[in-house]
Design goal:
The protein has 329 residues and is of the alpha+beta class. The protein contains ten helices and 17 strands. The strands form four sheets. Strands 7, 8, 9, 10, 13, 14, 15, 16 and 17 form a nine-stranded mixed β-sheet that branches. It has a four-stranded antiparallel β-sheet with strand order 3-2-5-6. It has a two-stranded antiparallel sheet with strand order 1-4. Among the domains are: 54 residues, Structural Genomics Hypothetical 15.5 Kd Protein In mrcA-pckA Intergenic Region, Chain A (Roll), CATH 3.10.290; 37 residues, no CATH class.
Length: 329
């Protein structure tokens, strides 16, 4: 076979994700034909060379792909000194060494992919591919349209601004609200931290989908193998998702920006109509006439423009006063 970069080869052998394999190499834990390798970029072939990790020779494993409905209290790691339950402890139908794709914190539950394909795991979790992951969040308090708008625009966290790709209100009450949230980035405990900053602590968080792959029909704690069609979909998902079925990435970003803008306007409207808190800027933009600076004023010109002010002086009965007909519109 054609030699591959060592970190890619280790990932394909089911050791871990490619990024984790790079750390193993840098730590001097990998040898090729008896020599320790500590630099990235070295190529090798498992079929013709002796590649070892911590002294154990690596061989190609049959790749497996599973979906697990993770219960609450299970930690997403294969090594836990505290002895807590791990996802691998629930995989009773296979003896292959699998690892979780991405992370769900111990207090969260729902869809978790398990595999020994490190290459695919890296593509599904790396932020640059923007693979959508959907969650149901039950939070405390009454979430307003302004809160949703802030989540779409971005909430500042310690490591920078974090934003959601999409937010839908499913239920809203005085003391509790339920949201469907889609992320395309994966910061640590991102949803919980964003909502906490907005004053809505998360009471329950469930991941329901990765792309189109869902957890429906799988009881909590159960796992099943992915079908061939689901595996093929996951392997093509990062590339298809980044270009939206053939659209250039730059056009995709523009489309996302238009969607965010539309969502912010909708969130403002809902927040205003339902008593949501409005900022001074939004109050000025949507004034009592429903026109604002962006709307049309006298003579088809913006109310705040120079030509609009000139026309208003000419048509108004007194300086600084609007005509009765205009104020009645």
């Amino acid at each position: 076979m054609v030699p591959e970069r060592l970190q890619k080869l280790l990932a394909r052998a089911g050791v871990a994700s490619r990024r984790a394999c790079e750390e193993l190499i840098a730590d001097g834990r990998v040898t090729v034909d008896g020599g320790v390798v500590t630099t990235l970029g070295v190529k090798a072939d498992l079929e013709t060379q002796d590649v070892r990790l911590d002294g154990r020779r690596l061989r190609r494993e049959r790749l497996e792909y599973w979906i697990l409905n993770k219960p609450k209290g299970v930690v997403c790691t294969n090594y836990d000194p505290a002895g807590r339950r791990r996802p691998i402890d629930l995989m009773h139908k296979t003896t292959t060494r699998l690892f979780p794709v991405g992370r769900l914190d111990a207090d969260s539950k729902g869809l978790l992919l398990m595999t020994n394909d490190g290459e695919l795991a890296n593509r599904l979790t790396h932020p640059r591919y923007g693979v959508p992951k959907t969650y149901l969040a039950t939070v405390g308090g009454r979430v307003t349209g302004n809160d949703i708008g802030r989540m779409m625009r971005g909430v500042r966290l310690a490591e920078g601004r974090a934003r959601t790709a999409d937010v839908h209100m499913l239920k809203r009450g005085r003391g509790r609200s339920t949201l469907r949230i889609t992320l395309r980035e994966g910061r640590n405990r991102q949803i919980r931290r964003m909502l906490a900053r907005l004053g809505h602590p998360v009471r329950e968080l469930v991941r329901t989908q990765i792309g189109r792959i869902g957890v429906r029909g799988l009881r909590v704690g159960e796992a099943r193998r992915l079908t061939d069609a689901e595996i093929e979909y996951l392997k093509t998902l990062p590339g298809q998702d980044a270009t939206q079925a053939g659209l250039p990435l730059e056009k995709t970003r523009r489309a996302d920006a238009r969607t965010r803008s539309s969502t912010r306007h909708k969130a403002w409207t809902e927040g205003g109509a339902r008593g949501g808190k409005q900022t001074k800027g939004s109050q000025r933009k949507h004034d009592a006439d429903g026109i604002g600076k962006a709307g049309k004023g006298h003579g088809g010109h913006a109310a705040g423009s120079r030509r609009g002010r000139t026309r208003r002086r000419a048509t108004s009965p007194g300086r600084g006063r609007r005509s009765r007909d205009h104020s009645a519109q």
